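job 3f2a | input accepted
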Amino acid sequence: MKTIEITGNDLTLEQVAAVACGEAKVALARDARRAVEKTRAVVDQIVAGNKVAYAITTGVGKLADVRLKPGEIREVQVNLMRSHAAGVGEPLSEAEVRAMMLLRANSLAKGFSGVRPATIEMLCEMLNRGVHPVVPSQGSVGASGDLAPLGHVGLVLIGEGEAVLDGKRMPGGEALKRAKLKPLVLEAKEAVSLVNGTQAMLGVGVLALLAAETLVDSADVVGALSLDALHGTDTAFDERIHQARPHPGQLQTAQNLRRMLQGSAIRESHRACARVQDAYSLRCMPQVHGAVRDALAHARRVFQIEANAAVDNPLVFAGTGEVLSGGNFHGEPLAFALDFLAIALTALAGISERRIERLVNPALNEGLPPFLAPGAGLHSGFMMAQVTAAALASENKVLAHPASVDSITTSGNKEDYVSMGMAAALKLRKVLENSRQVVAIEAIAAAQGLDFLRPLRTSKRGRAAVAAIRSVCPTVEHDRAMAGDFARVAGLIASGKLVEVLK
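job 3f2a | predicted structure (503 res):
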């Protein structure tokens, strides 16, 4: 298994996913260790000189004016960790927790937080040995970072809280013992550095973004199948049209659609038909799917910067020995991007649902049986499949309301404008899941439509896509419970296997 050396400066989103999925180990790079040691020396000097510095020799938040006695510094680290582990709700997934831990370690490795190398290495070893803190998903307002979720991670570092090891949930101290790790004794500033960051919303967001990138590619593949099943035209995907309005995402989707439809016998069979142009859900796939792509590209840029940023407070600058208080923990950049992703995926699911409607509606699906049913009347076919897609698409519209326009005052009015970025991340996760299910339903319906057009066949790439769908979902020859089909095709999409036909 490869090892990723973290420096705080060059972690990629793909590396985050590799660690999150347990495909790579983590280590603190040698150069990063030296940078961390330099800033730690500044903190040690402040403590030794009994100087006033926020979160080092004082309380935090509204209690910043409370001066700590030298003998209280270790005790306050434990108290901060315990008090901040105040989350509720369903725990984050193992992959999300792993992503969150890696991102926090990488931010600390940047060398502005003033922690010891041992603290970063503890996070790395917990990842390498499979110790996963139980992190409730709710309780963060997105500033000062994701305090509650990160508090639950930090609690396990000191041998408290709960963790999962080898699939078993147990006390954090027991998990460390079984993994042959000793609980960490936190020193000055380390507790606030562990909890003061945006890594929960970022961890959820990074994994959702990568899955969404696969989903939009899959939507291009599935949309092409639907268009061919509905006797649509590829004229709208002519490269000249899109070069006249050269948004990058639009150009990419148009190219994907041209490749998917190249060589289709179905397309050749109706070139002389009287239809001038198709409905928007077919004709405007490059413009809609492409805009989704551009939204994902924007989020990727934001997430990539954040993955290699120092986001706690205060920051320690070794060159001058200064400790400066600021607000890099504020999640607004992420909150906006997370909300934008939810809006974009809502549109992707919405246009997909409209194509499903065209496939099943006897008034719109020329040449196909009503509701794609063999023996319509005796069988209902895809009637309820479209209803399910409509339900999911409409649920997304509710979830797409931006969380980032909200704020609520916390910490005695000291933290008086927050990002709600974690709420945006959790909503995005659900929108992603719904959207994948809608595209899965469209995939099954499009494959069914193409089956009815035999002996005419779609393109070579289209046939490969249908074969992939059929590997987990056979043709619907009579009414059956389709929930399992939806789940299997959604899994096929999530795995990335459907988009392999674009290569």
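job 3f2a | The two ends are 27 Å apart (CA to CA).
job 3f2a | closed
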